[in-house]
Amino acid sequence: MATAFAPTKLTATLPLHGSQENRLVLPIRLAPHSSFLGSTRSLTAHSSRRLNHAHATRRSPPVVGVQEVVKEKKSINSLLITKEEGLVLYEDMILGRSFEDMCAQMYYRGKMFGFVHLYNGQEAVSTGFIKLLTKSDSVVSTYRDHVHALSKGVSARAVMSELFGKVTGCCRGQGGSMHMFSKEHNMLGGFAFIGEGIPVATGAAFSSKYRRDVLKQDCEDVTVAFFGDGTCNNGQFYECLNMAALWKLPIIFVVENNLWAIGMSHLRATSDPEIWKKGPAFGMPGVHVDGMDVLKVREVAKEAVARARRGEGPTLVECETYRFRGHSLADPDELRDAAEKAKYAARDPIAALKKYLIENNLAKEAELKSIEKKIDELVEEAVEFADASPQPGRSQLLENVFADPKGFGIGPDGRYRCEDPKFTEGTAQV
Amino acid sequence: MSSIIHGAGAATALSTFNPVDSKKLTNLSVRSQRYIVAGSEASKKKSFGSALTVRHSQKLIPNAVATKEADTSTSTGHELLLFEALQEGLEEEMDRDANVCVMGEDVGHYGGSYKVTKGLADKFGDLRVLDTPICENAFTGMAIGAAMTGLRPVIEGMNMGFLLLAFNQISNNCGMLHYTSGGQFTIPVVIRGPGGVGRQLGAEHSQRLESYFQSIPGIQMVACSTPYNAKGLMKAAIRSENPVILFEHVLLYNLKEKIPDEDYICNLEEAEMVRPGEHITILTYSRMRYHVMQAAKTLVNKGYDPEVIDIRSLKPFDLHTIGNSVKKTHRVLIVEECMRTGGIGASLTAAINENFHDYLDAPVMCLSSQDVPTPYAGTLEEWTVVQPAQIVTAVEQLCQ
């Protein structure tokens, strides 16, 4: 049984930065350092250098396979986090859990509608990655996005209001559960179709690179794209892995492999279920990590984010995790084996972090309890706020369809339709 | 091939046949001027009895947005081909704003499969004129993500038909994200590429995607047809904060025209008056404009006076220009290259019937392509699209 510390069992263990002997070197194109991709002539000229890669003057690291980062760190025999960091992580995970539990309650009380997908059990992945990011880094998620938004800094009030469909929601009530956007916090959504967000994330990473290389601005922003195991069989995933590796975009692809895509087991849908392996096929490192352990995720995330910031390109991180609830609140969750659920429930990431903090004297039980209480109050307050907020008025119907409302065109009277007073009332004919 | 002859013939037809300088008409800042010109034409034409009485044009409200007035002296200006006009527009906008970039297959080193981006990669670099791998869905989505984070990408579909692979991104993300994010993120992309029936290119390369995209909320669609409006629309589309799809046509890239030297844009939401007239309104766009003008030549010889409007803005329709024309002529013929079912013509027919029913003396007639996958054989291909002879017959029928 894996504890918080035990390294995950991996089929291939190769050092990411280790000694020279065990390097798995995959041949990569050696385009000239200065120009972006350069001409094809320079590409063929360098291909003969592949064999002498170890002596290449370029400092870019070779593409390697999987790595057990935590194992290496352990040998130094120090703690992985400080007390402050520990408390931040704990609070974030508790926020995620409490919020989702409250969502379930509110849904069954008829306060929120439609498809609501809860994140219970997967908190370690969100917290592990997003708490390392700055405000200007971007996060792109899927329909299971409430906790990603919360970790990124969107207030619980804004998310809850959005779920209630109120005007004070982060998307003015127009998006809903599956579309959490925040320009301020660079939360780029929230997408209903799987795989749809990955190209958007790739684009955000492209913007970072463009800003640095074309506009010559100081830009170290990275993008983290979260998606599930089911998405890894979708074309958009592969197309983006290719482009991200090709252009060394500052992006981290995080697979939240919770083994189930609604009722489809990952093993029944995928020819080679080890998703991390697909990274090296495209020329980027593929890393597998225990997604129920926030500290392990955080160590891998640190490495991947640093890589991206240095301009070394993308990383594919597969997090083995599990969702404690069904796919959505409408899913009866009858297909999953009770034994499997129990096995993962015993690996609850919040319980594991709590144990770590207490055992290593980073926090007392009372401190953690007070954090839990604080979060409970925060979530309650968010519900009250959302309840009290007004529903969107009719006038909001036609706003935001176009950034420039002239896009509704010119009406028979010669005026732009958006100038029609009925437009702001939401009753204009468009 | 016959279609090329149409293209070339129509270009000369445009420059020699039209008694009024087309540029004067297309670039007026106040719409009322258009009708002053139209009024003077009326005296030249025969009337055909009471069925074709001319009503006075309505009192017009100056429009909200002024487009720059054209340089009316035709001695300045430079002549170029339509693809060069597109390139010029693109280059000028890229010079003007460093956030404008191009993404697409073979746009960089190859210069674009229709040469629209020729030379741009040398000037702006490989990152600003990005050669993408062949993954329309992903690179369109990537452009959308880049647009959300501050860039202004111009996405090229090597053929518009390829963008069917990007439909997910165009519909769900490009059109919708501004709304679902509550207005937080803008998506100022331009999606452009050649479409339409070409020269025996086969069914898949001859598609008219405007009919598929027209329902997507949140996007604008425009179609260019002359070097002048190609450059103007390209620039306007790039400057617009909305996502715009610019439809070009495979057979129109080599049209030649003299365009002004100075900076100008064409309003995205306005239609273009090609030939004012009194008897019938013919609404068209893109390549069919030239078939219509060829038919107009014949019609004038037969004594008809058609008013030809290039609607240019496929979504939204410029109901003001169209409406004023319908109120004047009371007869409408739509000539388009879309399929019969669910095409732009179908939407336009509905819009006209809904808004201007009282002004019609005859049912709106719509000539579209056959609901047939475009055949390879030249003769069959010719019969799938609307030919000038059919247009003449339709006008004669409507004006009885």
What do these coordinates show?
Chain A: Its cofactor is thiamine diphosphate. Chain A: Its EC number is 1.2.4.1. Chain A: Tetramer of 2 alpha and 2 beta subunits. Chain A: Residues 92-392 form the Dehydrogenase E1 component domain. Chain A: It catalyses: N(6)-[(R)-lipoyl]-L-lysyl-[protein] + pyruvate + H(+) = N(6)-[(R)-S(8)-acetyldihydrolipoyl]-L-lysyl-[protein] + CO2. The complex is a heterodimer of chains A (430) and B (400). With 430 residues, chain A is of the alpha/beta class. Chain A contains 15 helices and 9 strands. Chain A has helices spanning 40-47, 69-75, 83-108, 123-130, 146-152, 156-164, 197-213, 235-247, 266-269, 278-282, 294-310, 338-345, 349-359, 365-388, 421-425, and strands spanning 138-140, 181-182, 187-188, 223-228, 251-257, 260-261, 264-265, 286-290, 315-320. A 5-stranded parallel β-sheet of chain A has the order 1-4-5-9-8, with helices on both faces. Chain A has a two-stranded antiparallel sheet with strand order 2-3. Chain A has a two-stranded antiparallel sheet with strand order 6-7. In chain A, a hairpin with a 2-residue loop joins strand 6 (260-261) and strand 7. In chain A, helix 4 runs parallel beside helix 5 (146-152) and helix 6 crosses helix 14. The longest helix of chain A has 26 residues, at 83-108. Chain A is globular and about 75 Å long. Mean pLDDT of chain A is 86; it is low at 1-34 and 45-76. Chain B has 400 residues and is α/β, with parallel strands linked by helices. Helix content of chain B is 38%, strand content 17%. Chain B has helices at residues 2-17, 22-26, 32-42, 82-96, 120-124, 136-148, 167-175, 177-180, 210-213, 227-239, 288-301, 319-329, 344-356, 378-384, 388-398; strands spanning 78-81, 100-104, 129-131, 152-156, 190-195, 220-223, 244-249, 256-259, 272-275, 280-284, 306-310, 313-315, 332-339, 365-369. In chain B, strand 2, helix 5 (120-124) and strand 3 (129-131) form a beta-alpha-beta unit. Chains A and B meet through strand 2, helix 7 and helix 8 of A and helix 6, helix 7, helix 8 and helix 12 of B.
